[in-house]
Amino acid sequence: MTRPLIAVPARISATASALRFAAEANARMLIEAVWRAGGEPVSIHPADTETATRLARFDGLLLPGGGDLAPHRYGAADTHDTVYDVDGLQDTFDLDAARAALDLGLPLLAICRGLQVVNVALGGTLEQDMGGPESDHRHRVHPVTVKPDSTLNSAVGAEKADVSCYHHQRVDRLGAGLTITATAADGTVEGVELPCSRGWFTAVQWHPEDTAHADPVQQALFEALVRSAAGETV
């Protein structure tokens, strides 16, 4: 069987020891989760042109985690001093890729930064910092509640899940048409969807790849993406 091609935008990294210089990379656990699900993960170069044309050759898109979006992308006049790893080209490409995938009806799974990218692409805003180590969700595993009858619920088959998080920002104002599909106990938006989406789409604020190798609930997200990319009804 031919594996569906899953585009995974590379993350621009200032250093990478194995490559000696600046690099474009993707997290190994993320790539392995797509592979286990039966997909062919393809790292793609961030560029500021021809995004829709480039994505049209793929069967699905996975928008991964990464650094923060530049606050001006969602209309903020100031930048909080905790904002990190902003890259203009990365922002442009990810935002274009999110819009293109939704326009094309390309199956789309968005993770952490990916969720924030989709929210901003649809006119939403972000809270630039959740309030420091006691309030953010870095290096934490915590429970989330999943909305019944959502695409996310259909994918993971659960209304409660323990998830691995690493983020200090969260959704403030929802983008146009988005609905909340998962929340943490503190009210943080942990999942969003677009009911009018042309193709399969769900986004989570946590990192399912962290535990997908041992947790079928988390691996199920990648399996749903790949099945949808293969043309199956999910």
UniProtKB/TrEMBL annotation:
Pfam families: Peptidase_C26
GO cellular component, as recorded: cytosol
BP-aspect Gene Ontology terms: polyamine catabolic process
PROSITE patterns assigned: GATASE_TYPE_1 (PS51273)
UniProt xrefs under InterPro entries: Class_I_gatase-like (IPR029062), Peptidase_C26 (IPR011697), PuuD-like (IPR044668)
GO molecular function: gamma-glutamyl-gamma-aminobutyrate hydrolase activity
Protein name: Peptidase C26
Native source organism of the sequence: Streptomyces canus
